[in-house]
Each structure stands twice: as structure tokens, then as C-alpha cells.
Specification:
By secondary structure, this protein is an all-beta fold. Among the domains are: 34 residues, no CATH class; 40 residues, no CATH class; 127 residues, no CATH class. Helix content is 0%, strand content 40%. The protein is built from no helices and 35 strands. Strands 26, 28, 29, 30, 32 and 35 form a six-stranded antiparallel β-sheet that branches. It has a four-stranded mixed β-sheet with strand order 7-8-9-10, with no helix packed on it. The termini are far apart.
């Protein structure tokens, strides 16, 4: 310092030093310090480059950016800011397109059809994450991987909930509705107005259910023309209360465990239930009322039967090549089911007889037995002695119809 006007320093002692008078200009060359340290205080005005102004002597100091600045390398804390025009942060970290009102993260060109455009170069990493800060630390991630879009609740024991005050609608191909859940809790697939809890409108084939990609069974529901079709790759069974009631076998046979009620509408009338069907073969033989004869039957001897409900239709044919012995009344025996308790309750038709010494003319069944008594035209019962020994003898063909 080369010169100090001492008479202008007022006072020359005390805690406050005043330099100059009002209106004076004091120029300092060098650095003004307080005991070797920078002086504290506020910025009363700013003149530092183009377009900067502001300052203040008390309280918070305001720094104004009055015109565009190509580069601002550092700013302190801004309590508020108003920006006119586009905003770019670090090339593509953040881009605000003021012309189209779009915001881009990770892109310099936010898509014009979205308000928020996020670009991501890391597979399986969330592009948008919404996360809570509480102890549960739940989060929701939105990302794209291998051309697929994902919405994921990525924490364990965290459910993903979708909520809507009205319908919840799912669309494909950006605009085509595929499914909706109405506010009433009804689900419609291909149907915008579901009228049941689950309503599918899918054209000819509306549903297909498979196990292990169809290798262990599948069921297809379709509506060709005016009928409904259920197409199973194997047997198709219907259960009630966990118990199988009806089965449609792959070979075309239908089985019902409790029978089928015919001609009663929806009533469960036991007397009208068709609950049994059986068919098979049986071997008709001759027996003696006291002792059985020894008989050689030829290869034409056979019997077949059908049982429908409680009705039996038994057909038979006998031809012998040799007979001997035996005693008592001659019986036709071996029927597949016993005759009813009522004696003579069966209808037995004899269609042909030959090779007899005395031919049987009619027959009557025994009660609760599988035997039939043979009679001649005069009503006399035949005995084992009426059998004729020899080849192709004692031929009889017959049909028995009875209830069991």
C-alpha cells in the first residue's frame, strides 16, 4: 500500500472502521483478508460473464441466469428453477423435449407417441423401478428382455395386484382387446360383455386343455356348425362329488356306474334305471334229475346270452355223439343266470329238435335254479332214458327269456 489518507479513516480507533465518504469509490488492488482468511459476507452484485446477475446483502443470495449459457460446470443448491426450451442432461441421461412435451431417459429423441420414453441397453435390468423405502422394501420393475415386455414384482413373498374402478382390459397388437375382467368379477375372453363368470367367445374352437403338451391327454371344446363337441385324446369321464359316474371310452363305449334312467326326464327313478348290461357265452348240457348221464357233445354245442338290466336272453344249441347212464327226469341245464323264484316264470322257445326217440315238445323252468324240465307232446316228462345214443343225436335249439 503506497498511500493512506488517514484523515478519511473515521474513527481512528474502536471496533468499526469507516473508509471514505458517501459517494466515494474505493478500489482495492490485491486480496482483502481478515487476519489472513477470506472475508465473510454476502454477494451484493454479480458481474461474471454474459447473462449473470443477482446477489444480495442479507439472507439467501439469488443468482439469475438471464440468457442461454453453453456450459455451466457447477451450481450450488437451487430451491427452484424455470427453464424455457429443451433440457439435456449429459447427452442422453435426461432429455426434455419442450416442443412435443415428451421426456426421455437414456435417449436423445423421446418417442413422439409417448410422454415418457425409457431406453435401456442392459438385458434383464429394470428400465423403470418403483420401490418403497420401508422395511418391506417392495418394488415393481418394468423392463424388456429378448423382445418381451415384463411387469414384475421382484421381491419374495410379494404379490402383483392390478386394480381398476371399472373394467380391467388386456389388449394385444397395441389395440385389439383379448380379455377383460368386469367390475362384477366376470371374465371375458374374446367377449367384451361377459354374461357369466367365465365367458369365452373364440370361434369354432374355444378351449383346449392339455397335460404335458398333450402327450398325457388333452380335451378340446369346439362348436362346429350348431353342435358342441368335446374331443378327448383318451377316455372322457364325468365325476360327481369326486366319484366317476359316466365314462366315454376312446373305443366308443359309454359306461355309467349307476345306470341310466330312461323315459323319466330328470327324475332319479330306480325302477326305470338301466343299470346293467352284460353279454357272453355259456355251455348248455343235459342232466338227470337223480344222476347225470355220461355224454359226448360235438363241436356244434354252444350257448350265448345278453343281459340288459334284469332281463336275460339266453340262446343255446345241443348235439350229442354218444350217451350212456343217468337216471331221473331229463333236464336242460347250465343257463348263465338262475331262473326267478316263480316256477315256470321263463319263456322258453324250442325252435328245432331231431335225433330223438321221443322228441321234447315244450319245457318248464325250475325255481331258483339254472335248469329246465323237458316234456313230450302229451305232457309227460322226459327222462334220461329218452336220450338216443349215436352221432348227431338229441339235437335241440332253443331261446329262453326271463327276468332275474
Amino acid at each position: 500500500m503506497s498511500k493512506v489518507e488517514v484523515d478519511k479513516v473515521i474513527p481512528q480507533s474502536g471496533t468499526t472502521l469507516t473508509i471514505g465518504d458517501s459517494g466515494d469509490t474505493i478500489n482495492l488492488v490485491g486480496t482483502l483478508q481478515s487476519n489472513g482468511s477470506p472475508l465473510p459476507g454476502d454477494i451484493s452484485s454479480v458481474v461474471a460473464g454474459t447473462g449473470l446477475s443477482g446477489g444480495g446483502t442479507t439472507g439467501a443470495v439469488t443468482l439469475n441466469i438471464d440468457s442461454a449459457q453453453s456450459t455451466i460446470t457447477s451450481l450450488g443448491t437451487l430451491t427452484s428453477a424455470t427453464i424455457s426450451g429443451d433440457l439435456t442432461v449429459d447427452t442422453n441421461t435426461l432429455k426434455v423435449d419442450s416442443s412435443n412435451n415428451n421426456v426421455g431417459i437414456g435417449t436423445t429423441s423421446p418417442n413422439s407417441i409417448t410422454n415418457l420414453h425409457v431406453a435401456d441397453t442392459y438385458a434383464n435390468e429394470p428400465m423403470i423401478r418403483i420401490e418403497t423405502s420401508d422395511s418391506g422394501n417392495k418394488r415393481l420393475d418394468l423392463y424388456v428382455n429378448s423382445g418381451q415386455g415384463y411387469v414384475a414384482a421382484t421381491q419374495s413373498a410379494q404379490s402383483l395386484n392390478f386394480a381398476s374402478r371399472d373394467n380391467l382390459i388386456f389388449k394385444t397388437n397395441t389395440s385389439s382387446e383379448a380379455m377383460r375382467i368386469t367390475s362384477a368379477g366376470r371374465v371375458g375372453i374374446g367377449e367384451t360383455s361377459p354374461d357369466t363368470t367365465f365367458h369365452v367367445n373364440g370361434g369354432t374352437t374355444v378351449a383346449k386343455f392339455e397335460r404335458d403338451s398333450g402327450t398325457n391327454g388333452s380335451l378340446t371344446i369346439s362348436f362346429p356348425s350348431t353342435r358342441a363337441t368335446f374331443d378327448a385324446s383318451g377316455d372322457l369321464s364325468i365325476k360327481n362329488g369326486g366319484t366317476e359316474r359316466v365314462r366315454f371310452h376312446s373305443g366308443g363305449v359309454i359306461s355309467a356306474t349307476q345306470g341310466i334312467a330312461l323315459g323319466v326326464g330328470t327324475a332319479n327313478t330306480a325302477s326305470n334305471v338301466l343299470d346293467d348290461y352284460e353279454e357272453g357265452t355259456w355251455t348248455p348240457v343235459y342232466e338227470g334229475g337223480t344222476s347225470n348221464p355220461t355224454i359226448t357233445y360235438d363241436g356244434f354245442t354252444h350257448g350265448t346270452y345278453n343281459k340288459i338290466g334284469n332281463m336275460v336272453f339266453a340262446r343255446g344249441y345241443i348235439r350229442t355223439d354218444a350217451t350212456s347212464g343217468g337216471s331221473g327226469g331229463l333236464l336242460l341245464a347250465g343257463f348263465p343266470f338262475n331262473f326267478p323264484a316263480q316256477a315256470y316264470g321263463a319263456t322258453i322257445l324250442t325252435t328245432s329238435t331231431f335225433g330223438w326217440s321221443t322228441q321234447p315238445a315244450f319245457s318248464l323252468n325250475d325255481s331258483n335254479a339254472d335248469t329246465v324240465n323237458l316234456y313230450d307232446a302229451s305232457g309227460n316228462g322226459l327222462t334220461t332214458s329218452n336220450l338216443t345214443n349215436g352221432a348227431n343225436k338229441n339235437v335241440i335249439s332253443f331261446l329262453a327269456v326271463y327276468q332275474v
